[in-house]
Amino acid sequence: MNQSTRELIVERADELFYQQGFEHTSFAHIAKEVNISRGNFYHHFKSKDQILDAVIDLRLANTQSMLDEWELEGETPDARIRCFIQILIRNMAKITLYGCPVGTLTTELAKLNHVALGRANEVFTLFRGWLTQQFEAQGCGDQSDELAMHLLARSQGIATLASAFQDESFIHDEVKTLNQWLEQQLSNS
Amino acid sequence: MNQSTRELIVERADELFYQQGFEHTSFAHIAKEVNISRGNFYHHFKSKDQILDAVIDLRLANTQSMLDEWELEGETPDARIRCFIQILIRNMAKITLYGCPVGTLTTELAKLNHVALGRANEVFTLFRGWLTQQFEAQGCGDQSDELAMHLLARSQGIATLASAFQDESFIHDEVKTLNQWLEQQLSNS
């Protein structure tokens, strides 16, 4: 029971940080949304920074599960990398409204000079390591990390522009270009 | 004299919004940094949103001046587009700390569901229109707007990842890749 209240708080905070930003979401706001007493809330978390740590843990766990799924889903490294690209389409509506949850959090924490920036960046590092493995398995050798970072940057840029122009069709166009880029890279290797 | 106090406020707010984020920077904080009396401050601005409008005006004017400079500086459209890519190198230290001022502001305002999002996005629109013109002048025809948006997205993604990993060398690598991409596009057209 206690565990599930804690989980409820973290899940709601995760959404609020994503949709409104970390700074804009107050400790009181989260308590109010979860609709529990202040005493019960304090029992679980003493500060917004503690909630942020738990949100980052949740995001790391969710990212790892997703990567594990793709590992089973995609029969080749190539197909697995396409699973990554495909999240731009799957999360298109949210990305157009709020950008990418990973990139917008690290951007905000960098500006706040927040101590949790390094931990928030571990989500990127998970994707980076996994993508690097896929490129290696596809025979890209020494270039694999560079290709992984390039792909992460491409997907971040697409999210930022789609959100700025509130334009879903831009995501469609760029995903097509990204898949063409992938094909080229893999045929070169 | 009045004019210059106003300018001072707007310039300092511009920096603070960029370095710390819009939400994190309070009205009182700006007044304190500019070091003028509250009365004098209120004489110029009644709210943070009014300051934001003035900051966007300043950024639009500065962007236009920069584009005008590049227009004179670059002898060919190709060279002018390279001036755009080169700002990633010129502003590398700041980008690594705070990301891109244009993209991080639109991202934040989108999350805040802020009425000024459309105006903030006019800075992107200025770049987009100017880059489209350069691609057209270089013979890219119907593809010109798509290429302009693609280039904007690439530069945004580079800024986000450089800031997340606090990695200047990533900017160098990606700028090289971006210049190669440009060469390819222009040789195709």
Main sheet attributes: strand count, strand direction, barrel closure of chain A:
none
Q: Please name the CATH topology of the domain at 57-188 in chain A.
A: Tetracycline Repressor, domain 2
Compressed to H and E, one letter per element, the order of chain A equals: HHHHHHHHHH
Tally of separate helices of chain A:
10
The fourth-level CATH homologous superfamily of the domain at 57-188 in chain A is Tetracycline Repressor, domain 2
- Total strands of chain A: 0
Q: What does the oligomeric state look like here? A: homodimer
| Head-to-tail CA distance between termini of chain A | 53 Å
- Rg of chain A, rounded, reads 18 Å
Describe the structure.
2 copies of one chain form a homodimer. With 189 residues, chain A is an all-alpha fold. Chain A has a domain at 57-188: Tetracycline Repressor, domain 2. In chain A, 83% of the residues lie in helices and 0% in strands. The first copy, chain A, has 10 helices and no strands. Chain A has helices spanning 2-20, 27-34, 38-44, 48-73, 77-90, 92-98, 101-111, 117-137, 144-165, 168-188. The longest helix of chain A has 26 residues, at 48-73. The radius of gyration of chain A is 18 Å and the shape is elongated. Chain A binds chain B through residues 19-21, 23-24, 97-99, 103-104, 106-108, 110-112, 121, 124, 146, 149-150, 152-158, 160-161, 163-166, 170, 173-174, 177, and chain B through 19-21, 23-24, 97-99, 103-104, 106-108, 110-112, 121, 124, 146, 149-150, 152-158, 160-161, 163-166, 170, 173-174, 177. Chains A, B: Residues 3-63 form the HTH tetR-type domain.
